[in-house]
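Entry 14. Structure prediction run on the chain below.
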Amino acid sequence: MNAAALLTELRAAVGEAQVLQGEACAPFELDWRKRWPGKALAVVRPGSTEEVAAAVRACATHGASLVPQGGNTGLVGGGVPDASGQQVLLSLQRLNRVREIDNANLTLTAEAGCILQTIQDAAEAQGLLFPLSLAAEGSCTIGGNLSTNAGGTQVLRYGNARELCLGLEVVTATGEVWQGLSGLRKDNTGYDLRDLFIGSEGTLGIITAATLKLHPQPLAQMTALAACPTLEAAVSLLSLARARAGSGLTGFEVMNAFSLALVRKHLPQLRQPLAESPWTVLLEISDSESVAHARSLFEGLLEAALDAGTITDAAVAESQAQSKTFWHLRESIPLAQSEEGLNIKHDIALPVSAIPAFVAQTDAALARQFPGVRMVDFGHLGDGNLHYNVQAPEGVAPGEFLKANEAAVNAIVYDQVGRFGGSISAEHGIGQLKREELAARKDPVALHLMRQVKKALDPQGLFNPNRVL
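Output returned:
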């Protein structure tokens, strides 16, 4: 690779000021968890789809690999360069416009670098809802959300990022632009290329824009925290909530006692309205009829759960501000855990019915092998996505525990996930964190097909090499 010639072409493509080198690259070279430091040849910041395509063509000519990056909020090391100093990091943060909102078609078209919260706000300004919501929504980008098929807190009602996307604009490995920004809900003209690129973590093409589904804003939302004596009781509460609320159940999150204890320890300003309980559920109902109807439905649900012994206590948000406070408790768990020190994260999916047995058996297996280990269990119980995180025992250096035991902890957890028919990645992706686990645990036929797809769409291996596969 002739680095000097490549850099000259990149500057011609995007402008000299948008090709960063040296210390200016540092903010882009380290992932959010600070686990995977890298070194880029340059950070390229295109301002249009055409500039992205020109940058890809330049890299293809010189055989340089590209790593696309949005808000750099990923948790599996998929959006940072390796340590070679030979990769080009393609930052999409300047592609940040909302291009169009079609109220009648309930769609919004935005560029890949658009911040998720900006899209939410743009929809809300039109009296509409873009329901993808996650803790990093103030800094993550829609391109990154789509590249990992992000989930978030409202998957139960609205689905993952894939279900919220109707069309894409993508730059291919040859520097061509696929114009697939359709707002159609029905289109059976061949293979579904959109779903191929969503969740591919930048390994097959560069998403530059997307057409997204919008929904009407609910007339009312009710939020509550409920204390559950067991995880089995939380699953029973979910069944009851589904039966009572149907599609109006938009959120159902579960948190174990230790996860909320960490929030109390590191974020004491966040008031917790319930006494400590083995498990706490945050549930939300959205209603298209009226506030009175939503409150009646919600109160009936909680009364039935109390009578059944499914919950022991509950607190209902009396205002939008209080509802946000309840959600802030849930969304602050990752930050509190980070303050406690490095931890071994697992983003797993399981049949909801299997989650209590999985947690009981896996907790016990980990405690036997690592006495004193602390479990931070929380996540989206409504869709079977559990963040099953392992914190070092009290008094043990977190970094040393992770370095010495991560492989053994993962083996126990992922063996159990497989035993219960689950997945090792629910919404965070594979990146470099789980690449070897995927190779060892994914069906061989599926892996072969995935490699064939990669070879067909990116024969030079330019896009995010050594990630996912």
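The CA atoms of residues 149 and 199 lie 5 Å apart.
Filed with the rest of this week's runs.
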